[in-house]
Design brief:
By secondary structure, the protein is of the alpha+beta class. Strand 9 (70-74) and strand 10 (79-86) form a beta hairpin. It is globular and about 80 Å long.
Length: 581
């Protein structure tokens, strides 16, 4: 027997222990494995997915026989699956090659608490609910009982639900100080609705589960950080003051002076509109052609240099798509750098809401090199840009053709990790790892090794339970448990639709919250003209200035947390049970 594992044969079944923990409890009347074949039905509208399945041929092998460090599972008629263990890994394989659905039931103790699942917005404790693991838009409202969610569902399935997230991850931790990671990229579900079992479902014919055990939560979180990779410490400029988000073209530099005159501690100016804007019914969007807009910023390199001379950094924006009416789109098309339609060699165009864009195919290393060098390198880093929002990554359709021939149903969850790698490579190519900072909302297993900073995505500009300001806390804490040391949010919120606009109280409370995150960065939102901004009134400006100074005052404390995160993997923002289990 492997040193980590202990197998116990019983008359009615068997028990399998890992590091002293019972993890599989197989009984003839309650088998630990189910195999089946799937019949999926998938639809996508602007990053919102509907995923249905009609599995058939379900079989739950109840008989078993031990063969060294593995168990062969069968029913009366035939052998159906093999369960094997070695090191810290448990492998399951269906013997029928046509099988493409698996369910593994892991043992759960009465009252055992469960956390994880990547970056979850609604619930930190996962008990009693199912969590599909599929990167997507999280939705607007995310609560089927609200009118806003109903309206958004009518508009392209965009309302969302409690489990929708930009950054899912098939990893969970339990209060037995045991962690389980499904080492797979396919669609899967973590199901904690049965108090007697932690079920892992996946759309594949084989599965590898990795187990981690520790004496307490700190060591367990540290072990997961080792597994997925650690982020470099944040640079002093990113934690030493506020990053003011303005998308007003060259006038943003003038507006920034009001923040400075009000006494704000300013470390950066973030202009996501550096490449131009596009007005849509959703609001003021960006022009997705990642080159500086001379119209909005007549001398951006000069303006950046002037800011740098005052100790202030400039940040921008990019995403992994190119609008089909842009210049870079034509270059990428000529080079064959887009994911393709299944029925032709034409680029697959995705509707992003009143404009279409091509999906850069990051399974082609030439595409990764081109984007990292031409866009992130020459267009951004080389003119003095020190950070950017690396947006999106969740939209890979499931019916594209990819350069490496991989199944898009599997590549979909991997896409944010590939996107993070492209950004990290660009930063490294200029020798600026740990100095230039990009931040992402999308993620999956392994993004931790490449993305230095998360942001919590597009919260509604309100206090609602499932999509408002409070979800920022849940997002930071859940992501922190699976290896992400740093998270922050759009101070002021982002999504304003159907008459939902910012209030003075929301703006004030978000300042108070953001001041105690590792990074304080404001955002004007999707409809800046309809909403309050921090420079709309002297009172709001004074509020922002005050809390930016509090944030700057905390920089030595955050620096110590950064050093601790680099050394131990413990995150800057932590659930209290990490220290008080």
């Amino acid at each position: 027997m492997d040193g980590h594992w202990h197998f116990l044969a019983l008359d009615e079944g068997f028990d399998l222990h890992f590091a002293g923990h019972l993890v599989v409890r197989h009984r003839r009347d309650c088998p630990s494995v189910v195999i089946a074949r799937g019949k999926p039905d998938i639809a996508m509208v602007r990053g919102n997915f509907r995923i249905d399945d009609a599995p058939f041929g379900l079989r739950a092998p109840f008989e078993w026989r031990l063969e060294d460090d593995r168990v062969v599972l069968s029913d009366v008629a035939e052998d159906l699956a093999v369960l094997a263990w070695s090191g810290s890994q448990l492998d399951l394989r269906a013997l029928d090659p046509a099988c493409d659905r698996l369910i593994v039931r892991l043992h759960a103790e009465p009252g055992e608490a469960v956390w994880g699942g990547g970056e979850q917005m609604s619930y930190l404790a996962l008990n009693g609910r199912r969590f599909p693991i599929w990167t997507s838009e999280p939705g607007v409202g995310r609560d089927k009982s609200t009118e806003l969610t109903r309206l958004m569902d009518e508009q392209g399935m965009a309302g969302g639900d409690y489990w929708n997230t930009n950054y899912p991850q098939p990893t969970f931790l339990t209060s037995r100080w045991l962690a389980v990671h499904l080492d797979a990229e396919c669609y899967s579900v973590l199901d904690f609705t049965d108090p007697n079992a932690h079920a892992v479902e996946l759309w594949a014919g084989s599965a590898s589960l990795q187990f981690f055990a520790a004496a307490g939560p700190e060591a367990l979180v540290s072990a997961l950080s080792d597994r997925f990779g650690r982020q470099p410490p944040l640079p002093d400029w990113a934690i030493g003051g506020a990053i003011v988000g303005l998308k007003d073209g060259q006038r943003s530099f003038e507006r920034l002076e009001a923040f400075i005159d009000a006494g704000a501690a300013v470390s950066g100016l973030w202009c996501e509109d550096w490449a131009g804007v596009r007005q849509t019914s959703f609001g003021r969007r960006l022009f997705w052609d990642w080159r500086r807009s001379d119209q909005r910023f007549p001398d951006l390199p000069g303006s950046i240099a002037a800011l740098n001379a005052r100790g202030i950094r400039f940040l921008a924006y990019a995403n992994p798509y190119l609008a089909n009416d842009g210049i870079l789109y034509e270059e990428a098309r000529e080079k064959g750098y887009f994911a393709l339609r299944q029925d032709s060699d034409e680029p697959y165009l995705v509707d992003f809401g009143e404009f279409d864009a091509g999906v850069l195919d990051f399974t082609n290393s030439a595409v990764c090199d081109w984007f990292a060098e031409k866009v992130l390198g020459k267009e951004m880093l080389d003119i003095g840009i020190d950070g950017w929002m690396a947006d999106f990554g969740e939209y890979l359709p499931t019916d594209v053709r990819l350069h490496d021939g991989s199944d898009p149903m599997v590549a979909h969850n991997r896409w944010p990790v590939l996107w993070a790698q492209v950004n990290a490579a660009a930063v490294e190519s200029r020798g600026k790892t740990g100095e230039a900072v990009f931040f992402m909302r999308a993620g999956f297993s392994g993004v931790q090794a490449h993305c230095p900073l998360l942001w919590a995505g597009d919260q509604s500009v309100d206090f609602t339970r499932h999509d408002g300001i409070g979800t920022v806390i849940t997002a930071a804490l859940s992501a922190s448990l699976v290896g992400n040391a740093y998270s922050h949010s759009d101070c002021g919120g982002y999504t304003s639709l159907h008459g939902n606009v910012r209030t003075v109280e929301l703006m004030q409370r978000w300042c108070e919250l953001a001041a105690f995150a590792p990074v304080l960065r404001s955002h004007e939102g999707n409809r800046p003209d309809d909403n309050l901004q921090y420079d709309s009134t002297p009172e709001l400006l004074a509020c922002f200035a005050r809390w930016s100074r509090v944030h700057a005052h905390l920089a030595p404390y955050v620096r110590r947390l950064c050093e601790e995160a680099a050394a131990t993997g413990l995150p800057a923002q932590r659930p209290l049970f990490l220290h008080y289990p």
